[in-house]
Design the sequence.
């Protein structure tokens, strides 16, 4: 009964009226995040993995606004960090060090030293840094290692991280060297980490990774947890296949329970996009309509300086006309105002777009604002979080002074 009541109370999507209200109050371009949706996604995970040995760390590289991090903490989720500065943001947001997981790659050892001083959970990504860690700390500080399973997975090569040409993790074929370092320095390895990529819709990918790890687990007698990373696929367009979390949970838990070496280990996941992608909306205003022989362009007051995913990953974002929802369906190419090619959508059927109309991009919560920039000396947009139905400004829009911040002026 509690679960049914929860879903009744929570709001999966913000209404057109709520989006228009926020755009009118805070201006455009504007990122809006629905806190309810974040909580719903987290509850879906905890309900599917209904046990006391599965732990979730929000991969905060998806969205690090401090207000989002505080909300993530308030619903009981831990946090995964990809840099020492993300670690500091998480601690600033109030997370306990024991709930902060730090996994980075290609970094100087001094960053790992700083993480150790802060007392957070550490995963190490290379034999070189593991050797340095062993020399300095021996077995005094428990640590995890990130392995590369040589599995190709993910929705795009740029977000596939577990294949045999990936920079991420220690290749499994170097297990002998890894064990030699651990034995020599008596390093206390308590976690094995693996992340194959993003936009994974097939539970089989996780099961493949588990099989690789299960062969390795017996070499680590002090192991307490296995971290399977994240990358759960969410739907971006009508009919898109998202990952079946209930199916994933059942199969993963069965695999762990049926293996004598893993049945008592904790299972960790690092959901980022899954938790915040669908909570996010990006609203832009149409500056100009330009009709050509090739296409009718709707140029908006944004560009890849605010939302780079369509240009970087060929990512699809559903776009709707908030101002003219009943207009005649026509084809429009939605483009930005940057002095580069920044096409958000090509020949997209949608309700007729006019100058000054407001367009909303859906699934904009993950890697939207987080990957934004001041390219062309454009201002970064404002951010708003809707909590309990009330919109609240959580980041002000850039002003001219922000472009000068950090510069030394004679």
Sequence:
């Amino acid at each position: 009964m509690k679960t049914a009541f929860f879903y009744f109370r929570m709001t999966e999507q913000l209404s057109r009226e709520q989006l228009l209200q926020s755009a009118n109050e805070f201006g455009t371009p504007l990122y809006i995040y629905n806190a309810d949706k974040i909580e719903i996604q987290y509850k879906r995970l905890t309900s599917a993995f209904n046990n006391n040995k599965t732990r979730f760390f929000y991969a905060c590289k998806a969205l690090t606004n401090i207000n989002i991090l505080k909300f993530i903490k308030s619903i009981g989720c831990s946090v995964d960090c990809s840099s020492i500065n993300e670690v500091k943001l998480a601690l600033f947001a109030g997370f306990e060090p024991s709930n902060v997981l730090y996994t980075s790659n290609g970094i100087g050892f001094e960053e790992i030293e700083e993480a150790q001083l802060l007392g957070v959970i550490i995963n190490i990504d290379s034999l070189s840094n593991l050797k340095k860690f062993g020399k300095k700390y021996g077995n005094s500080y428990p640590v995890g290692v990130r392995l590369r399973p040589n599995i190709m997975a993910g929705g795009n090569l740029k977000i596939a991280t577990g294949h045999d040409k990936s920079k991420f993790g220690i290749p499994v074929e170097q297990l002998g060297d890894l064990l030699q370092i651990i034995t020599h320095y008596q390093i206390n390895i308590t976690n094995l980490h693996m992340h194959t990529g993003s936009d994974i819709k097939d539970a089989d990918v996780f099961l493949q990774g588990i099989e690789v790890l299960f062969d390795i687990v017996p070499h680590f007698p002090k192991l307490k947890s296995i971290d399977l990373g994240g990358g759960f696929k969410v739907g971006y367009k009508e009919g898109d296949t998202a990952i079946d979390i209930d199916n994933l949970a059942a199969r993963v838990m069965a695999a762990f329970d049926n293996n004598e070496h893993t049945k008592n280990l904790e299972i960790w996941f690092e959901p980022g996009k899954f938790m915040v992608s669908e909570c996010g909306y990006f609203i832009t205003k149409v500056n100009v309509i330009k009709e050509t022989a090739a296409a009718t362009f709707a140029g908006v007051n944004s560009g890849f300086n605010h939302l780079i995913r369509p240009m970087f990953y060929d990512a699809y974002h559903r776009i709707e006309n908030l101002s003219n929802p009943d207009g005649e369906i026509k084809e429009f190419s939605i483009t930005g105002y940057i002095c580069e090619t920044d096409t958000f959508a090509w020949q997209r059927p949608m309700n007729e777009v006019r100058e000054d109309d407001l367009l909303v991009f859906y699934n904009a919560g993950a890697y939207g604002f987080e990957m934004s920039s001041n390219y062309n000396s454009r201002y970064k947009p404002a951010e708003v979080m809707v909590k309990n139905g009330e919109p609240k400004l959580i980041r002000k829009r850039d002003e001219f002074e922000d472009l000068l911040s950090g510069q030394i002026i004679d």
Notes: Residues 35-48 form the longest helix (14 residues). The first strand starts at residue 30 and ends at 34. Confidence is low (pLDDT under 50) at residues 1-8, 152-163. The radius of gyration is 23 Å.
